[in-house]
Structure formats: C-alpha cells, structure tokens
Write the structure tokens for this entry.
Amino acid sequence: MKKKDILINESRIVAVVNAVNAARERRDYPFDSAALHPPEEKFVGWLKEHDDSVFATNALFLLTTMVFADNSETFFRIKLGNKSKFQENAWIFDVQKALSSPKTEEAATAYFTPGYNRVAIDDWRHNCQVISDQYKGDIHNFFSECDDDALKVVQVLENNAKVPGKPGLRRYGHKLARMFVGWTQLYGLHDFKNVDKIGIPVDFHVVALLRQTGGILFSDPTPKDIVGKEVVNPLMMRLCVENKWKPTTVSENLWQVGSKGCNNLEHQRCPIAHLCYRMMSREQLDTKGLFDPADTGRWLTRRERIKFRDGVVWLFDPNSAK
C-alpha cells in the first residue's frame, strides 16, 4: 500500500489533540499529579547529579536505544525506578569504563532486562567506541559537527540507524533520534537550533491513537515507515504550526495517553473515549513491520474484521467524523 492510499481526516486529528491537551490542563486521567512529571525526568535527574554534562548526555544517548521495546512509563518508573540499582550500574554509561570492561554487555543486559530489543545491547559497545574515537569521548562534539542543528543531528542518526557494518552511531531511527534530541534540549543538556522543526517521535502509540479515532485510515497492511515517517510526522508538524501547538507538548501528551494502552476497563475514563471507535494490538507491527487494519480488538466482529481487511467496506466513514 502506498502513501497516497492512506486517508487523512485532519479535523478528527485536531479534535484528538485538543481533547488530550485539555485533559492535561484539567489534570484528568491519565494526567494525574505523577504523570505531570514525564517518566524519564527523575532518571535524567540522577544522571545530572554527576555534575558532568558529558557523562549525563553520553548516558542519555546510550540509554535512548533501550526505550524502544517499552512504553516510557514501564521503562523508567518500573524497570529503572531504583536509584541504588542505577548507582551500582552507572559505570556502563561511562564511555571509557564501558569500553575497558569485558562485562559491559552482561551488566547492561541484567540492568535493562531487554526483550526482543536485546539486539540494542550488541551496539552498546560499538556506540561507546564511536563516541570515544570520533568524538573524543563527548557526544557534544557530534552536535558541534552538525552545527548544533537538531535537523542535521536527526538526519545523520536516521541515515545510519540500522545498517550493519556502518562505522557511525547506530540504532537511532526516526523515533529514537527525535526522542533523544528532544530530551537533550528539554533537560538543558544541550541547546540546539531548529529543535521545533524535527517533528514528534512517531511510534506505535501515536499512530494507534490516530487510527483508533479515525484520524488516519487505510484498507491494506501498510509498512510502518510509510505511515509514521512519510505521513504522520510531516502531517503533525504542519498541524502544530497551523494550530500553534508546541510539538514537544503534543508528543508528550499523545504518548502519555497512548502508552497507557487500551482496554474496556480504562476506556470509560480515557480523554478521547468519545472519539475512539476501536482498539489495536501490535501483532502485525512486531512480526512484519506492518500496521494492519484487520488487527483490531474491541467492538468489531471477526466477519467485520475480514471485511475491513479485504477492503469490502469501510467500517468508519472518515468524512462523517465530527
């Protein structure tokens, strides 16, 4: 399926973002008092306690690849929520110490307990080596090489994301590159130019929200890169400009709602329940890298799912959404 076959309902997307933003302002679920502080905030604070911006930024860079397999809530508050455990393992975030130890991969695996994302551990030492050799042990020198331009940083990272054997920094694709740059700017670790022009980190949760609410529709399984990179990211950037939304705020708010997951119990108190008409799992995305319109949950029968998959009928008319 091609980009041109994806249907966009901009008014619906605007309604979703406005509803989520309003829920945060009211501190409604899931924006309770704890959620008003991003999940990563406390952990980044621990990094900054070292009083060494080089250590903190290098550590945040290495850490970001591990967020891929989890939502941020689970990753930072549950997996990495123990400060004593962090202090015991802080050495793996020190580039030179990580390179000098033969147990770095073993320690990182024990600390992060990765699932299918354990392949990121394989590139941990490689990225440390690149930071050491090419950037004199300081990721800020990479930023300087890119003229401190967030757009250039993201482009370089994306181009080298998952190409085996490439000598540069690896594993920072569309989502992770933007996430890292956004966090680095947000927590005062570096001051980038054009940071508001890189778009939002589009992941499964953001796309799922837009699909579940009829903001984007397609009748055939579609590669995630087409949906996320070619459609959703530029669309959201334009809508942010037109509606005077701050991209980082939109990103955080959509992610906060999306990362909570969706089930019948939580649906009634979700801030976009009145706009939502179905639920997605991520089975096809995980197995084939596809967003599959037939992969739905609540409210659709098996016959309806087959019809939707085969393109026999649109179960939801995007032109009727108000």
Summary: The chain has a mean pLDDT of 83. The CA atoms of residues 85 and 261 lie 28 Å apart. The chain has two domains: 3-36+199-320, 41-196. The first helix runs from residue 10 to 26.
